[in-house]
Amino acid sequence: MTDHALRLLRQSRAEAGLAAFPFDFDLGRADHGEKVRLASGGPLTPVAGDGAGGTYFVCGDGSVLYADSEGSAGLIGSSADEALEMVIGLPGWHDYLDLSPADGTEKILARVAETEEEIRADYDIDAERAELRRALGLPERSPHELIGMLHTALLRTEPDFLLLNAEEGRAYERLDRHPRPPLWEPVLAPGRADLATLRAGEGPSAWDAVARDPLRRRLALRAAQFDRADGDLGLLRHLVRYEASSSMTDELRLGTVLVGLRGLAEDLPLLHEVRDTDFDTACGLSELPGPGATGAELRQWALDLDASMFGTDPSDEPAFTWTELARAQGMTERARVALIRLLDEIEWGQSLLRVPAGASEPLDTSMLRMLSREFQELGDLFQALRAQRLSADLQDTAWNRVSARLTQARLERELGLLPRATATLATLRATLTDPRDTSLRLWHGVNLGRFIAEEHYTLTRALADADLPEEARALLASSDAILGELSANAATGVRELAEETAERVRDLG
Fold it and tell me: What's the superkingdom here (predicted)?
């Protein structure tokens, strides 16, 4: 499909007026009102709008994204011409977002007839539609076919065309409510295929292609977690032996559990060998029953760990299991969409951070820290900073607030938000001098103090490189004050950076 019809529309005032009324595709309403962007970073060009405040955007591949004024968005066509076919052929298309070809021709025609009857009270829609189609060279399609085109486009919105508020980073809601497969389905699909291959193989030599590939091995173990078969013990032993080469992973723990659930004491030597691979595996599997344990004891250990960490329903797995595995497979945008949606949910209600009554902290902010790290792994520092700011705001001890603000300042600096980073470090320093919280009493002599000084000097250098001499000099003074408070050991690793930064500031004149 092309944008041929859109170009014709732009060249004809008469046709442009007809598209605006009654088909509500107005070239003069292309200003959306708020800055938006695609989460994937692709180009986005507004081309038209409607009377309700919605905007039509053309994306990099030619697809047309519609965003309404209420915070919902979705693709409505694979090209500008296809989108025009849809808005002209279905002028009440907003009322059909719940329809799909599966609803059948009769239901679709009845809904379209009801909507268009109302439009006909004000416009000679049939004649105007025929005129506009003819002028733009658009084919005549049945409502059933157009609904199919719309439905296909809507389902293609995510992951590549998720729309964000450019300033806040929040995602627009889906324009429709059609069901989508959960993230775990496409992520787990290769593992399920490999598990089937392993089951069809004839022993260790046939299993090595999967077992020697770290990612395929992990995915196969995850597939075995949710599809447990009595005949899998041999291949599970093989996968676990190879997975130990990756040190302590969640999948190694999972594999030992799946083996241990068989309750065979003869598997203890293998599991002990795996546990003793290195320091991390020894710590991670430290609760494994000893060499003299019975099969029943091994099975009980596996049952307890399975109940607390794994299980048989993929929808019960933490979201980060699937986003990390998606990222590892190159499903970057799928992972990004899931993480942004999760961050939005936390930001709006924080219910996901609640802890049981009587816990020492009112909120568990570990999910926000994990979100920040996951976004950094994706290279999305904007969303990482968004998660980090919220995490910093919710910390309840001075030590945690300082640690969180330190990461926040680094992310702001890396994004080029130097004034914000400077303000964040000022907030951090104020926390350091607050006598009401004693959790920071040792900061001068530990790594935290060194990290604080390093970030101060690094930001000072960035201010100097940005030709902000006054700001650089002011922060250099604060950096030197921080350095002066550190213990001798903590200060040792910072002095060279401090001297280089001071020289750079002096060069500013």
Answer: Bacteria
